DNA sequence: TATCATCAATAAATCGATTTACAGAATTTG
DNA sequence: CAAATTCTGTAAATCGATTTATTGATGATA
C-alpha cells in the first residue's frame, strides 16, 4: 500500500520504474521516436495503461521552445460567428495535437494588445487573431513587436507580415449590388453599425464600387456610426425621419448582423413593409433570419471553412512547411435569397433618378 | 551586446542578476511576500520594468500543487448563452488572478468526459462544468472519479458533491404558468427540442406542476424529442397536422431558444397567427426576439450573474474559504413580456374543458 | 557580555517532462 | 579478429518559476 494519503498522479518516472527503464526511454516511446526496442516499448505501454498515466501538458511544454499550444484572440464570444469560429479552431488544433487557449478582447483594442502579450507569455507556438479593427490594430501591432507567429482572421485585408483569412467581403458585397440592381433598385441605403471594422468598410466599398460601375446614376446613401451606445439606432431613426416617403430608398443593404437587426426593427417600428415598401439584404446570416417574418435575405459566411483554413495556414508556418510570402486568403460567401428581397419581389416604387 | 542572435525573453534570473539579488527574492517581490527590504523590492521592480520582464505562467504553475488555472467546459460555444457565460467566467477569473481555459464538448457526453480529464491533466485548480445533460452525466462522473474541485452550471439540479449554479428554471416556468393561466389559457403546448437536458426537464415540470395546481382541468400537451437531425421539427409538424384547428392549444410555451425558433417557424408556415390564434412564450431570450414580428415574450436568464456567482463559489472552495456542504444556487429569471403573449392579448378561443 | 529570537536573503531542491551527451552492446567492415 | 559503425538506453542538464532549509546579520533579553 502506498504511503501517500492522496493518490498522487503517476509521473513519467513512475512509469519508468514500473517498466524497468529510464524516463528518457518512456519519453521516447510516448513521442513515437523509433530508437526503442520493441520489447521495451511494449513494457512502457503496459505500464502506462496500468498506472493510468497521462502526460502533464504543462510540464511537457516547459522544456521545448515551441510549445504545443496555440492562442486565439477574438473580439467577442457572444456572437454565433466567433463562437463557431473558435469551435472550428479548437477542433482543428486538437486534431493536430495542439491545445487551444481562447480569449475574448470584448471589442477593446487595449485588451486585445494585452491578450496577445499574454499569449506570448504562454510561449504559444502561434496565435490566431481576429482583430477588433483591422490588421493595423493594436493586437497585430503587438504581434509584430513580439515577433510572434500568427495568422489574422476576419476584419482584415492583406498584410505584408502575416497570412490573413477572411470572407470575401468585397466580392460578396459586389454580388449583392449585382443582385439588387438586377432587380431594378436604383436607390439603396447602406447601414453599418461601426466604422471601426475593416470587414464592414470592405463590404461598403464592394457594394458601392460595383453599383457605380453598373450604373453611375445609382443613389447610394450610407448611414455609418460608431459602435457603442444607441448611436447607431438613433442615426437610422433620423435617416428615415428626415426623409420624405417619396425619397426613400427602395432597398437596404445592412452591413452586419447587428445592423440587420437594427434596420429590421426600425422598419417595423415605422410601419414600412418589407419587401413591399423596401427590400432588405443583410451581411452575415443567422438562424433567426429564416424564421422571422419576412424571412431575411442574407450573405452567409463559411465560418467553418475559414477556421479550418486559418488553422492549417498557421500550422504550416509553425511547422516550417511554408516560408513563402504572406498570403491573403478570401473565402467565397453565399447569398441566401429569402423573402425580404428576391426575384419574386417587384421593386417597390420605380423612380427615375434626377433630383 | 548580448551574444544570442534572437533576443531571448528575460527570466526571473535575469531580473535577479540585474537587481543584484537572488531569484528567490525576486519571486517574493512578485508574489507580494512581505519579508523583503523596501530598498531591494524597489530595485527588483526597477529591473522588471527595465528588462520588460513578464512571468511565464506555465513555469510558474508547474511547481505549485494548485495551479492558477481554471478550466471551463461548456456544451457549445455557438450559442449566445454559453458565449456570454464564458465571457463572464473569463472576466471573473482574470480579476482573481487566474487563467481560464475553455473547451466546448459540442453536446457530446463522451467528449465532455475527455475534456474534464484533460483539465485534470492541466492540474487546474478547479473546473466549471456546464454539463451536456445533468449533474449525473459523464463529465460530472469524471470530476468525481478524479476527485476534482468543481462547480456545475446550468442544466443541473442539486448535487451531494458539488455546488451548482443555474437559472431558477422551475420557478421561472411556474411563473409562465401563472402568466398564461392568468390570461385565461386552459390548453397549452409545451415544446422542447431535447429530453437530454436537465434544465429543460425542470422547465417542463415547473410549468406543468404549477398549471395543474392552479387548475386541475388544464390541458397540457407536450412535444418532446431528442436533439439531432430534424426530428424535433417533424414532431412539431405532426402535432399540428393531426389536430383539428378547434382542438388546437391556445398557447405554446417553448422550452429553449432553439425550440422557440422551431415553433415560430412552424406556426408561420401553417399560417397560424401569433398572438391572435395562438400565444407564444419562449424560455431563453435572444436579441432577435424583440425585433421579429410579432416580438416574442421570453424568459431571460441572468447569465452574467450566473457566471459571476459560479466563479465566486468555485474560488471560495479553491481558496479554502468554504468547506460547508454543497449548495444549490438558483438565479431568478425575468419574463420579458412582448407581443407574442401579453395582457393586451385576448385568449384566442376560450373553450370550456371537458372532452 | 552572552544567549536567544527575529528578520532578510540565498543556495539548492523541486515540479514533470524533454533533450543532450555519452556509454555499452550489437553489428558490420577491413 | 580488430576496428569502425550503428543501435539502444541512461544519467544528467534543462526549461522558469516556487519553496525549503539554512545562513548571517541584527536586535532583544538575561
Query: Number of DSSP helices of chain A?
Result: 12
Oligomer: homodimer
Strand order of the largest sheet of chain A: 2-1-3-4-5-11
SSE succession of chain A: HHHHEHEHEHEEHEHEHEHEEHEE
Structural shape of chain A: elongated
Structure description:
2 copies of one chain form a homodimer. Chain A has 355 residues and is of the alpha/beta class. Chain A folds into 3 domains: 12-55, Orthogonal Bundle (434 Repressor (Amino-terminal Domain)), CATH 1.10.260; 69-167 and 302-332, Rossmann fold (3-Layer(aba) Sandwich); 169-301 and 336-341, 3-Layer(aba) Sandwich (Rossmann fold), CATH 3.40.50. Helix content of chain A is 41%, strand content 17%. The first copy, chain A, contains 12 helices and 12 strands. Chain A has helices at residues 12-19, 23-31, 38-51, 57-63, 80-95, 109-121, 138-145, 169-182, 198-214, 231-241, 257-269, 303-318; strands spanning 67-74, 99-104, 124-129, 150-153, 163-167, 187-192, 219-224, 251-254, 279-283, 297-300, 328-331, 334-336. Chain A has a 6-stranded parallel β-sheet with strand order 2-1-3-4-5-11, with helices on both faces. Chain A is elongated. The N and C termini of chain A lie far apart (94 Å). Chain A binds a DNA duplex (30 and 30 nucleotides) through helix 2 and helix 4.
